[in-house]
Structure formats: structure tokens, C-alpha cells
Amino acid sequence: MKSEPSVFSIDDLAKSPKQTTAWDGVRNYQVRNWLRDTIKKGDLAFFYHSSCEVPGIAGVMEVVKEGYPDPTQFDPEDHHYDPGSDSDNPRWYCVDVKFKKKFKRVITIDELRSHKPLAKMQVLQRGNRLSITPVTKAEWDYLLRLG
DNA sequence: GCCAACGTTGGC
DNA sequence: GCCAACGTTGGC
After folding, report:
1. Is A85 within 7 A of strand B by CB distance?
2. Residue ranges per structural domain of chain A
3. Among the CATH numbers 3.20.20.70, 3.40.718.10, 3.10.50.40, 3.10.590.10, which is that of A2-110?
4. Which residue places its CA closest to the C1' of nucleotide C4?
5. In this structure, which of A33, A38, A122, A133 has its CB flanked by the most CB atoms within 10 Å?
6. pLDDT digits (tens, 9 = 90+) for A89-139
7. Interatomic separation, CA of residue A89 and C1' of nucleotide B12, rounded (Å)
8. For residue A135, which of A26, A47, A27 has the smallest C-alpha distance?
9. Separation of CA A14 and C1' B5 in angstroms?
10. How far apart are CA A25 and CA A8, in angstroms?
């Protein structure tokens, strides 16, 4: 799951109340479907720092609340406000995530690409524009040993 | 339904 | 700041 650390970093997550935050603001239909239908309580995710000096995986978090309507879509003051979304049939969803651990170092995108077993990770693929992408069990296990 | 224009993402 | 990639929008 990607976030720009200048907006919200893994340290921000660790400092959040209950070390938990709503992963909101997603405005892509494919990712919306995963948030609404696929991602389950107890699922683990990597926290990926994007659009920053050292892009890469910073740590691990856990889904503690399954998909529910993203409140920011109904807030006219919010940057992610969507006037086209109907409260009876919300367009956008979010989940709550909790800090699990921060790696001793960021596992950089270059390092990820340098490991053959990780080369096919969806997040690394050319043209990927999704803010959340699946990780296979093999990739997950391999990566944990790096972090 | 096509597709050009436009906006966003995100590594570099 | 650049630019490739690609999703969205809107005129037709």
C-alpha cells in the first residue's frame, strides 16, 4: 500500500492514536473493489513510501477494519470530496490499518528490483499506477527476510 | 462507442 | 521539473 511520506509516512502511522488510521482517499475503481470486497481483517500489508527521495518498503501494517465507505468522499472541505457520490450507494471505500513494524531501513525500489524472486511484484511493473497492489505469499516471505 | 484532450501518478 | 503511462472526461 503506497503513501507519499511527505503526506503520511510510516512514522506518522506509528504515532497515530492506537497506531491506526483510515486508509482513505483512494479514487481508483480497481483499488476500490479490493478495499470493498477483497481485503480482510487480519490481512498484512507492506507500507510503501512513494514519490520521495528513497522510494521503497518501509514496514508492515495490519488491516484492523474491513472495507467501509470512505468518509472523505462526503466532506466538501476534504481534498478527496466527491460530489458525485451518493450516500445511499457510496462510490469509495477505505479500510483501517494498524502499525506492525518499521524495517531498520527502507527496502528501496532498486533493491527490490535486484532480487529475482521479487522482480515480478506488481508494484514494480512498468506503468503500474495502482496505490494498492497484491503481494504473493512467496514475495511476502522473501521480503520479510530482507527487512 | 470512439477517441482526443486532459489530469494524475511516480520514478528519475 | 520531466515525461511515460494510463485513467477519465466529454464532444461527437
Report:
1. no
2. 2-110
3. 3.10.590.10
4. A127
5. A133
6. 899 999 999 999 999 999 999 999 999 999 999 999 988 989 999 999 999
7. 40
8. A47
9. 42
10. 12
